[in-house]
Amino acid sequence: MTDRSIFDEMNGSDGQCRDAYQVLQEWLKSAPPQLLEHRREEAELLFRKVGITFAVYGNAEAEERLIPFDIIPRILAGHEWARLTRGLEQRVKALNLFLQDIYGPGEILRAGIIPPELVFQNPYYRPQMNGLALRGGIYVQVAGIDVVRVDGDDFYVLEDNLRTPSGVSYMLENREVMLRLFPDLMAMQRIRPIENYVDELLGTLKSVAPATSSAQPTVVLLTPGSLNSAYYEHSFLADRMGVELVEGRDLFVRDEVVFMRTTEGPKRVDVIYSRIDDDFLDPLVFRPDSALGVPGLIAAYRAGNVAIANAPGTGVADDKAMYSYVPDIVRFYMGEEPILKNVPTWRCREKEALSYVADNLHELVVKEVNGSGGYGMLVGPHATQEAREHFRRLVLASPDNYIAQPTLALSTSPVFTESGLAPRHVDLRPFVLTGRDGVRIVPGGLTRVALKPGSLVVNSSQGGGTKDTWVLSE
Q1: Is 373 among the domain residues?
Q2: The pLDDT of residue 282
């Protein structure tokens, strides 16, 4: 049975197949179940052959896992994508202006829009960035904005991922697998391509190279190493962009200039696409015990001799407490109403909100301000009384560390199961690139799906999977 109160991406709220899915529906009607099962098995073999995995920290039994992939695509009409991209561009522009402001004049703080303690006491705030003029004023070159749909018209932003957003390799691999397995189906529709993402990423990174760089700046991707949960993606992107994948030990700083060790001698580095946390970037500035970073890197950065994407200190704009202020941030800097809505949010740091949350845990989702990956959260309606009581104690003991939101009826999309097609909840992570030459958004993104019936948790580390996202040309 389909719950008609939940919007279904394929069948809407009224059970009638939506226009964007008409071709897929007709194809599915004519496809024998054994064909779909065969394609599912082929997809799994392809993923295993390529080695598309992710790591789960603290899980001794399965350090490397194959990310589950569903063969039924999620489809967006062209007009839906157009509205979504307008909202994403507006939001990311405002967040870049916010970061430029808080590390500069601080106008939004003086205006009383944002409580200063949310900035200055934020664990991701980096005073070393104060007064530093970044080329183009761009702090966030790569953003992954998580959006959900709860009805047919509007997308809501669930999270802003501005530090080291991941998942784009799965987006690209998902499309390659679908092209190999369903060429006939894909040829029946005008699906906008995403293959140019890597070129767009490289162009974005080169655009923020220091003014002193050569016409062909040297870009590297800095990884923590092969034990990192997203190492597959790091190596994938470096390979596709044709840039070196480096660890901290491969780089050194001399006279406030970053160099890469090569077999032909030192080579100057102009842009570092960093996939390591700020704390580990430079042991002379942040954690002195870091073996992952590069001593002197921040001095070279402040001297304007190297660009780091994303900039250190961007995390102050993407924690879950700051998230609740993003609509105000959009209004303050853009002079416009937000195109994309936020999910209503209670800030437990505020007395009235704390009281409401403590009394209504049974119907709320409670999240740690700095949590990620589906950890550090309570889904009240699906939790035990014991778990709710445990969270109540945590929230009351440290209210600044939590926010709460209503339990959303996330839209569903059909997935292929052993018993046929079945609805599962989904979200979407489009990737927004911002360079000196503007904002670029490839048409699609990573659709994550909660493969467990009724589950709202789509994170792969929590049992979720992915599917290809098709955006149709109008």
Answers
A1: yes
A2: 97
